[in-house]
Specification:
This protein has about 140 residues and is mostly helical. It has six helices and no strands. The chain is about 70% helix and about 0% strand. The longest helix has 23 residues, at about 115-135. It starts with a helix and ends with a helix.
Length: about 140
């Protein structure tokens, strides 16, 4: 049951990314180009996602545990730290240069286009490198 719910949730998320245009790099870079020919349509996608998600977060905050785990895994760090700021900067630069963020890139890799495969490979290499650096500390 747990796997089926994860599969349906992931499929619904992927479908939403495709329908909204988040898997189209030109649309994403058009959204990020605020000084040129800005395309504000993804702002509406993000606002709709927040509007749908926010009530569920509020609802789950009142529960003792999720359906398929013993506890919720909420973030524990409350402030800004150098790692968060560096990660946000790397994310933003990667998003701006490629037109992909991790979720839409994973959805798009199924198409097999070389730029997406390279991006996902670099993303995985960055995740592995980060884990190695954190473990070394």
């Amino acid at each position: 049951m747990r796997f089926a719910i994860a599969l349906v949730s992931g499929g619904l998320f992927a479908l939403g990314l495709v329908i909204s245009g988040m898997t189209t790099p030109a649309k994403v870079t058009g959204f990020l180009d605020v000084t040129g020919s800005w395309d504000p349509s993804l702002a509406f996608v993000m606002a709709a996602a927040i509007a749908v998600h926010a009530p569920f977060v509020r609802l789950t905050r009142g529960l003792r545990a999720p359906l398929f785990d013993t506890r919720f895994h909420w973030p524990t760090v409350k402030g800004l730290d150098p790692a968060l700021l560096a990660g946000a900067a790397v994310f933003g630069v990667g998003w701006g240069l490629s037109g992909f963020c991790p979720g839409p890139a994973l959805v798009s890799v199924g198409a097999g286009a070389l730029p997406v495969v390279v991006f996902v490979g670099a993303m995985i290499a960055g995740l592995v490198a980060t884990r190695l650096v954190v473990r070394a500390r």
